[in-house]
Amino acid sequence: MASKHTPGPWVYRTDDACDWGWVSTADGEFIAQAKDPRANDGATLNAHRAARTDPWEANARLIAAAPDLLEVCEALNVLRTHFDEATSGNQADAYYTFVKGEDALWAKLRAALAKAEGV
């Protein structure tokens, strides 16, 4: 099934307080803002401005990583399907292909998780 969402990569914007929680494409096209409209406590927001921190950073990073995480999940699903189909033949070859593909996907998954966690 073809994805209908805006293609990735998506990035978490950190330019200034006006961009708190903003997620955009790599080209700067707006995707979403992970800002809680109920969080309007001036003192708290001023403390974040002074500390130059984004109170919605964790949510924005998770949203920005969504296309990467989706890509890995879809690829793992396809890989597993191919492995299941191939095991009816030469299991050693199928297992080698599966492990080789799985290693590359685990690397992509670790990168997507690091992006989501801001590491």
Structural description of this entry:
It is a single chain. This protein has helices at residues 42-51, 57-86, 91-117; strands at 10-12, 22-25, 30-33. It has 119 residues and is mainly alpha-helical. The longest helix is centred in the middle third of the chain and has 30 residues, at 57-86. The mean pLDDT is 80.
Q: What's the gist of this structure?
A:
The protein is built from three helices and three strands; from the N terminus they run βββααα. The chain is mostly helical.
The proportion of residues forming helix, as a percent range, comes to 55-70%
Number of E-state strands = 3
State the order of secondary-structure elements, H for helix, E for strand. Answer: EEEHHH
Q: In percent, how much strand structure appears in the residues? A: 5-15%
Strand-pairing-aware structural class: mainly alpha
How many strands, what sense, and barrel or not for the largest sheet? 3 strands, antiparallel
The helix tally amounts to 3
Poorly predicted regions are none
Structural descriptors:
3-stranded antiparallel β-sheet; 3 strands; mainly alpha; 119 residues
Secondary structure layout:
Elements: E1 10-12, E2 22-25, E3 30-33, H1 42-51, H2 57-86, H3 91-117
Antiparallel strand pairs: 1-2, 2-3
